[in-house]
Amino acid sequence: MPFLFFTVPAFTQLIFSLVAITVRFFRGVINPDWNSISLHCCWSSGHLSGIPVIFVPGNAGSVRQVRSLGSLLQNKTESRKEPFHFNVFGIDFNEELSGIAGMYLERQIRYLRFVVDQVWQIYHPSPKGLILVGHSMGGIVIRSLLRDPNFNPSRIALIITLGTPHKSPRKNALIIIEQFYSDNNLTKNLKGSHVPMISISGGLKDILVPEHLSVDTDFYHFSTTAIDGVEAEADHLCIVWCNQLVRKVSITIAIYQVTVYFLIFLKKRLELKIA
C-alpha cells in the first residue's frame, strides 16, 4: 500500500501524512512556514484523477484506521469495473488527545483547511467535490471547518461522521472542550449548508460517546442497530473498522458517486441531443 508522507516543524508536534489507496505514489514536504506544500509526483501525468476521500481521525486516533475503508472502496470499484475510482487519504495528527484539549482542535481545523486546499490542487481538472469521513472528534474538526469564514464549503460533496459528539461534549468533559463548543457555535445549526451530512453512532456499546450526543438536526443520523446488515453494535473504536459497518459506509460513498456520475453523463447526453 503506497504512503504519502508529510513532515511539519517539530514545535507543532504534528506529523501529517496521507495514505493514498491507489496504484500511484507520491511524497511531499511541508515548508517550515506552513504556507506551502511541495509535492514530488512519481508518475508521468503528475496529477490524480480519482475521487478524493479524506479521513480525519479523532482523539488519539491513528491514520491507519482509514485502511479498512480504503481497501473496500478500491475492491468495490475494481470488482464492479466502475468508470471511476477513489483516492483515499488519511490525516495523521500524531494521535493527539484532541478530546481533552481545545488547542489541538483549533490547529487541526486550520490544518484540515490547508490539506483540503492542497489536495484540491493536485487534481486537474478539479474534482466535483471532496468526501470527508471523520471519526470521533475528527467529525468535530470537519464540522468546525464548515463554519470557518476563510473556507470554501462548495469544495465538500459529502460528510460522514462516526461516533462524533455533535450535540455537546460528554458531561465529564473538561471546561476547555466545553468552551471550544461554545466559541465555535457547534450547538447551533449550520444554516444554508448544501453539504449532505451523515452521522453514525455505535449504539449502547459506545460508552465514550453516547448515542444521543451524535444526534443533530444538521445530520441524517443512523445507529448501528438500525442499519440493515450490521448485526452488532460497535464500541467507539470498533465503529471505524467493523467490516459490516464499513461495508455500508463504502456502499454509501460509492452509490453517492454513481449518482453524481450518472447525472453528469445524463447532462452530457442531453447537451448532445440539443446540439
UniProtKB/TrEMBL annotation:
List where the protein spans the membrane: 249-266
Origin, by domain of life?
A: Eukaryota
UniProt GO molecular function: phosphatidylinositol deacylase activity
Enumerate the Pfam families for this protein: PGAP1 (PF07819)
What positions does the domain GPI inositol-deacylase PGAP1-like alpha/beta occupy? 47-253
Say what the protein does: Involved in inositol deacylation of GPI-anchored proteins which plays important roles in the quality control and ER-associated degradation of GPI-anchored proteins.
Quick check: keyword Metal-binding in the entry?
Answer: no
The Gene Ontology CC terms held by the record are: endoplasmic reticulum membrane
Entry keyword set? Endoplasmic reticulum, Hydrolase, Membrane, Protein transport, Transmembrane, Transmembrane helix, Transport
- Name listed for the protein in its UniProt record: GPI inositol-deacylase
Instruction: Name the enzyme group at the top EC level.
Output: hydrolase
Species whose genome carries this gene:
Enterobius vermicularis
State if Oxidoreductase is listed as a keyword. no
The record gives the membrane topology as: Multi-pass membrane protein
Could you tell me where this protein is found in the cell?
Endoplasmic reticulum membrane
Q: Which family does it belong to?
A: Belongs to the GPI inositol-deacylase family.
Mind listing the GO biological process terms from this record? Answer: endoplasmic reticulum to Golgi vesicle-mediated transport; GPI anchor metabolic process; protein transport
| Enzyme Commission number(s) of this protein | 3.1.-.-
InterPro entries assigned to the protein according to its UniProt record, in alphabetical order = AB_hydrolase_fold (IPR029058), PGAP1-ab_dom-like (IPR012908), PGAP1/BST1 (IPR039529)
